[in-house]
Amino acid sequence: MIMRNAKDANYFQIDGVVKKLSAPKGAILLPSKEAWQKLKWTRKYFKKKPVYGYFVWIKEKINTSILTCISIVSEGFNQNLSNLFVIEKGINIEGKGICNVSKVHLKASHKAKGVIVLKEGASFNYQHIHRWGRDDKVKTDYHFILHDGSKLNYLYRTISPPKQLNIKTTVDSYKDSTTFIRLLSDSSHTKINLEEKINLLEKGASGIIELRLVGRKGSLIKAKSTIVAHSFSKGHLDCQGILIDKKSKISLIPELICKDKDAQITHEASVGKISQDQIVYLRTRGLSEKEAIELVIGGFLNK
């Protein structure tokens, strides 16, 4: 999988070494350390001098998507990234970030702190895909800044979860900007802590957080989702979980904070098990119980 991702990647890093760096026309792509040195304005977002990670600056319209691939191949490696992605005014772009390991028992650590900036009228459709081993520890902290009229469609998905997973996502949404965050996780033998927050800062801002979480084989999942309406704006939380076994636990904590009487923010949350009627029906169609469960889970995560 690593080599397949690397073939098309604009930025490819293994452990702490950059293996590939390729920017399309209209974009600048640098290691974060080099961006800090050459472009002093980036220090506003990096806060401190980065060691590892990437900087992507979309200055003009480009005719392709941006793919970053971060991999770990060495046992016990501690990967610590600082990333910055900036999209200029009125530009629409698609991006994909893949983070993974080469083997399932590396006992590696992956930490990533990033800032994604959408200037006025920009649009970003971004998929963030993780594939880890059962002994890995992962912690990410991403801050999205949406300027006036910008649009963010963000999907985060774990293909295979690590031992410990801490995901923090914060969005600052300004006038007439829109946010859609979708987090999907099918978890086994893992401890997960999710924190998502959308700050609707100015008039006309809107945001949706959607969670689809599956807990099995003793997984412990805690998700706190927050929308704060500072002005006339709209927001919605949709948090749903499915428990597959008695040893797993899902805790959903929706939080709505309204600071403007004209704002409208709502939520729905539910945790349950797979309906036995669904299993029986699918088994009458020729599926085994295991196949039926996997089909239902697949539909739940993709609906």
Q: What does this 3D model show about the protein?
A:
With 303 residues, the chain is mostly beta strands. The protein has two domains: 2-274; 275-303, no CATH class. The chain is built from five helices and 19 strands. The strands form two sheets. A ten-stranded mixed β-sheet has the order 2-1-5-7-9-11-13-15-17-19, with helices on one face. Strands 3-4-6-8-10-12-14-16-18 form a nine-stranded mixed β-sheet. The chain starts with a helix and ends with a helix.
Main-sheet strand order equals: 2-1-5-7-9-11-13-15-17-19
Write down the secondary-structure element order.
Answer: HEEEHHEEEEEEEEEEEEEEEEHH
DSSP strand (E) fraction? over 45%
Low-confidence parts: none
Query: Major beta sheet, specifics?
Result: 10 strands, mixed
Q: Nearest-angstrom radius of gyration?
A: 20 Å
Please give the share of residues in helix: 10-25%
Give the distance, in angstroms, between the N- and C-terminal Cα atoms. Answer: 26 Å
**Mean pLDDT over the residues:** 93
Given the C-alpha coordinates, what overall shape results?
globular
Look at the helices and sheets and give the structural class: mainly beta
- Kindly state the number of beta strands: 19
